[in-house]
Amino acid sequence: MTLMEFTWTHGSVIESSEFRHGPLEVVEDGVPFIFLLGTDESRHTTERAISFVKRYDKEYIVVDYAEISQGLHPMLAPFVMFVPMEWLCYYLSIYKDHNPDDRRYYGGLVEY
User: What predicted TM-score, i.e. pTM, was given to this entire model?
Assistant: First the structure.
């Protein structure tokens, strides 16, 4: 969600187990993917999705909790992995010449 909110980038959050139910059909060169690879029981399924994307696309990012956790408990993964995603969103918004503080619908621009 942060990716869409701060950078106005089209995207979708998909659990690895759902990757085979449609999203794999949009894998092609030039369609970027970001994978959050945990150390829990979903790791194998996410690794399969990453392997599939690697065969057809060169634009992907993998944030691997095993590499960045420095021995922290796996239950801390959502907090630890949030930080690199926030930096990615910040720098992507700058790259796209979009102020991450400018929101489309938040902040009173449109009545909700």
Answer: 0.81
